[in-house]
Amino acid sequence: MSVLVVTSLGDIVVDLHTDRCPLTTKNFLKLCKMKYYNGCLFHKVEKDFLAQTGDRTGTGTGGDSVYKFLYGEQARFFEDEIHPDLKHSKTGTVAMASAGENLNASQFYFTLRDDLDYLDEKHTVFGIVEEKEGLDTLAKINEAYVDDQGRPFKDIRFSPMPYIDPEQEIF
């Protein structure tokens, strides 16, 4: 399954690892469907490292999982889904920006270079951007002018587009 992410700098297609990371991809897809992410800022861009988003406050300190909306405050975070074979080896890897072990909510990041293997098994990798599906947009984000906190001087926003659920019949 894939999600089209429309940014102010171009489009990105994220291919999701739904079979390997069901909690994480369900969280991401449900937040997309309920328009939680619409208009979110890329609040942190570190050149040749990562671009982080998913916090509706735009500060990097907020965010809630879909499970909070379903089950209350005690379910704000959900568990890691770490798989040793899902790695930060390619530009365009998509992973949860967790606040610590088993503290995943809504924030996530795109890697902006290959071989960030020291992040492996610390963050849930749940998607990838394939060549010709948005790596050019990630390259533009990577070139953004940022302040000393990594926040782009010119806002970069995104909204994931509605998707067609393959389990849903279309008449």
- Low-pLDDT runs of 5+ residues are none
- Fraction of residues in H or I helices: 10-25%
**How much of the polypeptide forms β-strand, as a percent range?**
15-25%
CATH class descriptor name: Mainly Beta
Number of structural domains: 1
Helix run count: 3
**Mean residue pLDDT:** 93
User: Which superfamily, in CATH terms, is the homologous superfamily?
Assistant: Cyclophilin-like
**What can be said about the biggest beta sheet?**
9 strands, antiparallel
Oligomer: single chain
Structural class: alpha+beta
Q: CATH topology, which one? A: Cyclophilin
Rounded Rg: 15 Å
Order of SSEs, N→C? EEHEEEHEEEHE
Shape type: globular
CATH architecture: Beta Barrel
Q: Write out the strand line-up for the largest beta sheet, numbering strands in chain order.
A: 3-9-1-2-8-6-7-5-4
Written account of the structure:
Its main location: nucleus. PPIases accelerate the folding of proteins. It catalyzes the cis-trans isomerization of proline imidic peptide bonds in oligopeptides. Belongs to the cyclophilin-type PPIase family. This protein is an alpha+beta fold and 171 residues long. The chain has helices spanning 22-33, 66-71, 135-142, and strands spanning 2-7, 10-16, 40-41, 44-46, 50-53, 93-96, 108-111, 125-128, 157-160. Strands 3-9-1-2-8-6-7-5-4 form a nine-stranded antiparallel beta sheet. 38% of the residues are buried.
